[in-house]
## 1
Amino acid sequence: MVETRRQQIETIASSLFREQGYAGTSVRDIARGLDIQGASLYAHVASKEDVLWAIVRRAAERFEAEIEMAERATAGAAPVERLEAYVRGHVGVLTENVGQASVFIREWRSLSPDRRARIGARRDAYENRWRQLIAEGSQAGAFAPTDPPLAAAYLLTALNGIVTWYRPDGPLSARAIAAEFVNLSLRSLGAEERP
Amino acid sequence: MVETRRQQIETIASSLFREQGYAGTSVRDIARGLDIQGASLYAHVASKEDVLWAIVRRAAERFEAEIEMAERATAGAAPVERLEAYVRGHVGVLTENVGQASVFIREWRSLSPDRRARIGARRDAYENRWRQLIAEGSQAGAFAPTDPPLAAAYLLTALNGIVTWYRPDGPLSARAIAAEFVNLSLRSLGAEERP
DNA sequence: CCTACCGATCGGTAGG
DNA sequence: CCTACCGATCGGTAGG
């Protein structure tokens, strides 16, 4: 697959931001990864923050698309199955593009106030869907009684931790990780093991 | 309690590093919090990194002391009780000094290579104790069968997530958070609810 | 703890 | 995409 220059920039910036943070990465660091001069980067992007913004937006879109798919695929199903779909989708987004996902999770605070607010609202909406599902499952008796906001925070950060250690060429496949994390997630909510 | 100037520096730096990251915080930012000139900070510290190093070391000591206490308090007890002590200790360190704990968890990568390696070894040793306990509990049948390294990573990042949203003056007390997170943790490992 | 200052690097622009 | 350059800020030092 041919990557446009713009895509290359975002890919390299993602991994640099993941490793060194946004503030710890200079425009020249990014340019070096493309074998061009620092100032030449501005032929392709308007600012350093625009690169961060593009990465964060793309990641947000992927999380949202994935949870929409999970919703549609398990509409009317039992809470346990719906949660499994949520977890698989979330872990899938995490592992398919760790750099991008990691930046979304950890570096969105570096955005300008208005952009930070906009992405914050989308993050809240996403997390609310998890709270909602947990609340429903809890009320239906499929999950143990729990505080939905707290349980959602617990669950999502547990999953998000994957970005701190996951490597695509590591010993554990994304499938194996997803399988184990589905079990851990279901148990966390007191759901019975799947058959 | 009277804080020495040095302690004030670490306290202010902790909260700034937590909010803006180490790279995103300047020496002048820290000095401003003390109402002194940027250069005057160097009457108290050798370098910016020394401040980070001091914070990280102190946090590491607290986590280590707390798990030692948990070990002693529950020596010979059932895995469920031991895990509960681990979780309470960990959450206690997190909430008692969120700034310091947050910097320990999220900013240790900004240390120089040798210091990063040293703190990395201590983090590994700490995580190993969790793995060990999970493995023992799993073998004894007190916990559901699981991959101890993966389960430990899941659990610890779930707990660590607390530093991203906890505020001492927030609506949830540290006690209440600890209680709920103990439940979530025990359930995550498939332990039966405590009576 | 201050003033005065240092070289290096930062994000970014002008003009090709 | 390059060269040449900008003002601002960075971590840090000298000398009081």
## 2
Amino acid sequence: MTSVTGAKPAQARAAAPTLEAVAALAGVSRATVSRVVNGSSTVTPSSADAVRAAIAQLGYVPNRAARSLASQQSHAIALVVPEDTTRFFGDVYFASIVAGINRRLERSDYLLNLMIASKGPEAKMLRYLAGGVVDGVVVVSHHTSDMFVREIGDMLPMVFGGRPAFDDLKGYVVDVDNVAGAATATQHLIDRGRRRIATITGPMSMQSGMDRLEGWRTTVEKAGLEPGPVVHGDYTMLSGSRAARELLAQGDEFDAVFVASDLMASGAQPVFLDRGLRVPEDIAMVGYDDSPSAVRCDVPLTTVRQPSEAMGEEMADILLSVLAGDMSKPQETLLPTALVERSST
Amino acid sequence: MTSVTGAKPAQARAAAPTLEAVAALAGVSRATVSRVVNGSSTVTPSSADAVRAAIAQLGYVPNRAARSLASQQSHAIALVVPEDTTRFFGDVYFASIVAGINRRLERSDYLLNLMIASKGPEAKMLRYLAGGVVDGVVVVSHHTSDMFVREIGDMLPMVFGGRPAFDDLKGYVVDVDNVAGAATATQHLIDRGRRRIATITGPMSMQSGMDRLEGWRTTVEKAGLEPGPVVHGDYTMLSGSRAARELLAQGDEFDAVFVASDLMASGAQPVFLDRGLRVPEDIAMVGYDDSPSAVRCDVPLTTVRQPSEAMGEEMADILLSVLAGDMSKPQETLLPTALVERSST
DNA sequence: TTGTACGCGTTATCAT
DNA sequence: ATGATAACGCGTACAA
């Protein structure tokens, strides 16, 4: 590591102007300034103008800490993701969620605090949240083993992205209808004339994994078909290729497979192709997510699209409503999925 | 959108215990409690124990807003990324940076605030930062056109990831030696016996783009070689394939190409291969970044590895030092690069 | 409509 | 070593 010492980079920074200063310049009291800043009640237009002029002239910006302390609100929300950084950044699903949340937040004066909480610092994070850094929490990618999440619900309003697996949930839920999505995908396979449909599932520690499996099973049974082989994965590409090998190794026949995530499907497909199996002729595939990897496959994937960005936006919207005291939001919001047909079926 | 109304999810949340409460329980004054909380100076072990016991019993957590207001510090830093969400999440480089920053922050009580500031809300972000939400800022992926970044330097300590292109910079810089990295790559090509070396550059609006071009040029000239053709890209895969086509269209001969990012290289390579050119026999390639895409290429890329995660960690470390009043850090820190040899040379 | 005065939970400066 | 007490900057009853 080379280093070059240069001029000193720090300098005296101008003290930020306060409400007091604005009030003095505008010739009114602090209270009045506070009122126009918060757009509140009735202030005489003339003095309101004077205040606004003073604010502009001084470049006044409310001090966040002081405001929080007085109002008992931080005007920030947290996105809690119980995954490690690699998974978080490796999955575009999270990108969409964040984009959606951001889009809603841009129309407010709330801030987003990203908390990617892999394994260790759960206790630390709970302490942060307890410290009043945020007014509410959005939780996505939640596993049954993440018990600490329950404690969050005891101290802050909470919105889940994807229904958590435990029963006594405190908090709102925004979800896609995973059962219906999986059912649509499976039915599509049946409509294409497939009779022996396998599935590569998501993790059984996540509600979405269980729901998609259920959607597959009920649809197959309703059609009077014998369920094909089932192999479990964890949504990652690696687990997808492993599952594909296992499927083949088991020796059970199948002419189609419903894969619970595009990442797993794009891991599985090369395995099939390498074995000389043709997609979709020998094995038809349907994925889930409609992620970019679905298109990048050798045989582009038919898949179930989730409105991830809309989910993010909806979650933020619900949380903001709750924080605004609006208790009329439904506790559970289901967003629709859509089948996207490509070459793999 | 279906919705199901359920039980009311919100409930009365216990008021958080305050310093006052702890003091009362421990039988000391607020000041003393504050002292042990901040590990400060000299407190009698006996009363310190009493305080700690009270804290544990009450589950006391300091209120962040109050602390900020009193101490004039937020104990949070911001990572400002002037890119849109898609680019941010699409590039693993950022993931490493964040991971590195997080790793350093975990050993502190600072919080990270991610601000992905595409185009619009620059003014809004400046207002946030002016509001005292953070004590310092880390800026990565900075373009010459992002003028608003300069204003940040006027109000907060700042660390750049990658040297900004403007001259009067206020702030620290952590960078890799892009000139040296490009030089190593180019020299490697020369050592392999290549005489006519082209380059696909990064954006000329970024210092790193200019530096890598310079490293290529000086090395070629120092070897007494005639510089090969130069085509500009913007680090993305798409621009890489476009650049490759342009390179071919120009008709100038070349037997090697130094590409300023792996993403561009993985866009360029298929173009060469499609034209029946062999890598490395007809065209040797060296990329930059050592990103996952370097390995996913048909012909895995020889590339220049940057210590991205170490960069993130170093940036956070410097910022924390400055915030702690330590002015001894060098204004510019250069991290070393390393050549990773694979099949493309 | 506007101003006064108090409180928010900590830190920091004094005395003691 | 410890305890009053004054900031910190703002919101907001309450009074005028």
